Amino acid sequence: MSSSVLQRWYNVVEMTNNVIVIETDEAFVGEFCVIRINKNKKISGEVISFKNNLASICLLDDGKGISSSTKVALTGKVRSIDITPSILGSVIDANFNIITRFGSSEQLFINTSQSYREVSSDGVSPLIRSIIDKKCITGIKAIDSLLTVGIGQRIGIFAPAGTGKTTLLVSLLNGIESDIYILILVGERGREVNEFIYSLIPNEIKNKCIVVYSTSDQSSILRRNAALIGMTISEYFRDAGFNVLVLFDSITRYARALREIALDGGEHSNDKYPSSVYSNIPKILERAGKTKNGSITAFYTILLESEDDDDPLGNEVKSIIDGHFYLTNKLSSKNHYPAIDVLSSKSRLFESLVSDDFKRDASLIRNALSKYQELEFLIDIGEYKAGVNRKNDKIVENIDEINSFLTQANDEFFSENELNEKMQIITSKLT
After folding, report:
1. pLDDT at 6
2. Where would I find the H helices in 196-294?
3. Residue 346 near residue 183, CB atoms below 8 Å
4. pLDDT tens column, 292-301
5. What CA–CA distance (Å, rounded) separates 92 from 100?
6. Which among 1, 80, 87 has a CA at the least distance from the CA of 36?
7. By the number of CB atoms within 10 A of the CB, which of 38, 60, 244, 310 ranks highest?
8. How many CA atoms lie within 13 A of 320 on its CB side?
């Protein structure tokens, strides 16, 4: 071993929780490190901050056994992965190890020289983004009718616990036709990872699906890396000319991992999240989208403590993405699934994706829902008087049919023609 390599090994001078400190002026943030605990055990780490001549390194693995005699090597490299089409049909952990396979990989020819990629890449440049002009048909009536999504769009699913978030993700996975499917599970419960892999992914797409996961008990770096690796894989296939569907669960747990990394690195904050979290969230959201080569259509979940939760993280995400769906306890308690509050939800590309006739029908249904919301209190207390306003009477008479239209079983899907027919039947009764 040369002396130049030997000079890259350093002693641990401090350890707190999952972070070790070494004395060096050569480290840079994001640098990949090797920690030699003893002759039989090596683990990995990443430089997360430095101050003066001290560099803080967050451990990726269990640091049991680390002492003042532990040696740390700075590699001079950032986390990178080598991607090939053979990873299709596999489950990948946050260290980019294939854990298991649930399908055989599709025989794809990928004409790209960019198989080796850094996981912390920049978002898509505005100059190479393409106009989103094709509908992404989900088969879900509430979405395709009033919240139409385009191929390459980014949508946030804002949901309190127990409102059917996972069920909606599975419906999207089943209903959307795509070349490649990427599931990114960040800081997930181990039980739910297992359930997704073996129970929820439809057999017909397993050969072109990849699951990237980290569990809630893993280090903050690994929880973050699952998201970065998942998006890097998605970019690889998009750049090769494919349409990719990404289901990202969840941005909230990704932000929590970023928060832990920031606090471990010495960053302080009076807010719920340090400022570095707000600077990193746009970076991962901007990695999805449509280019001249292919597209990444992404659905991100955001966890809400309650429906009235004025979450600064949620507001930040909503300001960046191209639309948002709100799931509510009020609807789920009525067994109204998917529990999407269409009046509080929005697709920013709706107007540019649908015809004028379709806009008219969607507007009539939206207006009917909004007006019924105004009348509901009078109806509940028995003060609504039929015959005074015929337009309102039609809304009251047909509200059950409208609500029925906005619900469906999670294994039920509708074509564009079926959707149009159902919308026209409803709107004919409202006019």
Report:
1. 41
2. 220-239, 251-264, 275-285
3. no
4. 999 999 999 9
5. 8
6. 1
7. 244
8. 23
The domain over range 9-78 is classified in CATH as 2.40.30.20: yes
In three-state secondary structure terms, 264 is: helix
The domain locations on the chain are 9-78, 80-352, 356-430
Angle at 89 between CA 322 and CA 100, to 5 degrees: 115
Dist CA 121 CA 135 (whole Å) = 28
Decide: helix, strand or coil at residue 406.
coil
Give the CB-side neighbour count of residue 35, counting CA atoms within 13 A.
Answer: 30
The sign of the CA dihedral 226, 231, 235, 238 is: positive
CB 244 within 8 Å of CB 238: yes
Residue with tokens 């990427």: 182
Q: How far apart are CA 246 and CA 301, in angstroms?
A: 11
Fold category of 80-352 in CATH: Rossmann fold (3.40.50)
pTM for the structure as a whole: 0.92
Fold assignment, 356-430:
Substrate Binding Domain Of Dnak; Chain:A; Domain 2 (1.20.1270)
**Could you tell me the end-to-end alpha-carbon distance of the chain, in angstroms, rounded to an integer?**
83
Which amino acid, residue 106? E
